[in-house]
Amino acid sequence: MELLLARNPEPDSTLPLLMLVPVDEGLVFRTKATWPRTAALYLHPVPRSDWPDDAEVVERIPLRSCVRRGAAIDVVADRGRESRSQIVYTTGRGRDMVFWQAPRTRKQARPNVRVPKARASGVPDLTIVVDAHERYPYRFAHQQVTVERRALPCGDYAVEHDGKLLASVERKSLDDLVGSVTSGRLRFALAELAALPRAAVVVEDRYSRVFATEHVRPAQLADGLAELQVRYPSVPIVFCETRPLAEEWTYRYLAAAWSWLDADASLLSARHERDPVQTPATPTTEPAAPTTRELRRWAVEQGLPVSDRGRLRPEVLKAWRDARA
Q: Which pLDDT score is estimated for 246?
């Protein structure tokens, strides 16, 4: 089994080579190099008949394996160095595209960035509760965080206020995401997370990897994720490419949720009333928090700047409370 590269018989083409991939009846692409050594190579698919009978072959690469896996083709050359590569079918600029990449070029495509050390949302000392069942949890070693380990009713990382969950994040590796979507476990997890004032799912990989899964049809997995997002729009599923970036995103998401504590007071009160397990709140003379619609109507009457839809800033709720103090 060989991967063949020959000269393109069309002299005016910007892709001077033809590549014949031994998959199915043979796949033919136009390309510009014999291997993706420094960058991913664009492949332009052409009909099998475009491979000439008298092709001028410039390189023959013996292969140990050439197997289609979902939206990708794994190509393993029979040699010691530069042996592994992958042909990936994707979309870009509104059309289908094909790229040929090696592990080195894929690594270069990942973001080589340093996460910032500044406090998230200006919170000086954030306490994050880590679920006791997390086997390899985030340590938040580079963030200004106090970590507590104990069992959480839902999610893997959370912030609390007065013993009530304010926000929670469920962490998923790509393999765990695939398994939980196909088994239906993620549906139940999202249902629990949706009952919280703030919740999200963070995935330690790129969304494009969804289309390179081996044991599940990529379309089935993508449809499952889309359906869950439509069913539970308040719980976003965020792809963060790498584990360090997912950890950083989790930290900043929970800090942002903590900084919105005043705005979420009404949500916490409503959840507290629905949860019979928690201790009842101490009666207070503070006026009950209004609904978002009532608060927006009041702000407009007072001449305060508010948006027509979406969340309201904490300053609006504070102004409402000050006016009734």
A: 93
